[in-house]
Amino acid sequence: MEKLEKLKKKRNAIILAHNYQRPEIQDVADFVGDSLALAMKAKETDADVIVFCGVDFMAQSAKIINPDKIVLFPDDTAKCPMAAMVDIDALLHWKKKYGYDIVSYINTTAEVKAISDICCTSANAIKVVRSMPNGIIFVPDENLGKYVKRFVNNEMVLWPGFCPTHLGITKKDVIKLKQKYPNAELLAHPECTEEIIDLANKVASTEGMVKYAKESDAKEFIIASERELCYRMKKEMPQKKFYSIENAVCPTMKKITLEKVVKSLEKMKPEIKLSKEIIEKAIIPLEKMLKIGRD
Ligand code: SF4
User: Does pLDDT of 293 surpass 90?
Assistant: First the structure.
């Protein structure tokens, strides 16, 4: 920890961590949040170096927003499987076939963002789609797309992508917890399946869940999202109880360790590198999204 503090000062670095990161990473981070909050934070920081503790597309977004800063990504094998589900040629074929605008969830590679009309996160997907006058190709999360479809009038075609972690949360898991904790409210991430969404008291992004739990009179919550989110919630609301789904773990999010964070600041690598052309194209849909803000 001492070494890390010294290195942070020496490099004028900030550590950004996603809500699904290991507890020890959340503890050393300057800021913990969801994809949208992290992108906003990356935009406003005056640090020279951003150490991004999350997965590939998040670190890439930080670089796109800050092309002149050094973005370190302590484990460059931490690639989100959902983001890897998009085939660019097939997406361009869909665009030609339907003639619709591409709304890409932030969980996409920089190359996919570069051909998108606008980005969104789970915190603003409904607002973003409502802002679009035409039909939409929604890529890559089908479950989030299905959820958004409930609230908008746009024609939408959905890419058949998914998050393995959220898809793995079953109705049986949730019912079991609801029986064990009958007073607990169910908060679900929109990457969950429709049968989980239909059982939820509140559907929200991870940041939205934190906000809801803080404002709610309820004292107990079942969290249908990645398990580690409960760590932050318990830390910020020690007077309330949070129950996680045991097997809801994203192995990719757990690849970053404290040792890797220290090492990245020592060696100043692995660093996110993107071509000027990709950055110039991908910043357009990201900036459009940042202007829209949260739902
Ligand atoms: S939780 Fe799902 S969407 Fe998020 S990084 Fe892991 S696999 Fe990707």
Answer: no
CA distance 136 to 63: 27
Whether the model clears a pTM of 0.85, i.e. scores above it, the answer is: yes
Residue 171 has pLDDT above 80, yes or no: yes
3-state secondary structure of 184: coil
pLDDT score for 39: 86
Q: Which residues contact 242 (CB under 8 A, 6 or more apart)?
A: 213, 220, 221, 223, 230, 233, 234
Nearest one of 217, 210, 199, 249 to 122, comparing CA atoms: 210
Please enumerate in sequence order all residues whose Cβ is within 8 A of that of 112, keeping only pairs 6 or more positions apart, or say none. Answer: 83, 86, 88, 91, 104, 139, 140
Query: Counting atoms of ligand 1 from 1, which one is nearest the CA of 20?
Result: 1
Alpha helices in 31-182 (DSSP H): 35-44, 56-65, 88-98, 110-114, 125-130, 142-149, 164-167, 171-180
Q: What is the pLDDT of residue 239?
A: 98
Residue minimizing CA distance to atom 2 of ligand 1: 163
Q: Tell whether ligand 1 has an atom less than 6 A from the beta carbon of residue 253.
A: yes
- Cα(64)–Cα(285) distance, integer angstroms: 11
For the beta sheet containing 49-53, the strands, ordered from the edge strand earlier in sequence to the opposite edge, are 31-33, 13-18, 49-53, 70-72
- Measured by CA distance, the residue closest to atom 3 of ligand 1 is 163
Q: Mind listing the pLDDT tens digit for each residue in 116-139?
A: 999 999 999 999 999 999 999 999
Comparing CA positions, the residue from 261, 280, 277 lying closest to residue 269 is 261
- Is the CB of 82 inside a 6 Å radius of any atom of ligand 1? yes
Does ligand 1 lie within 6 Å of residue 107's CB atom? yes
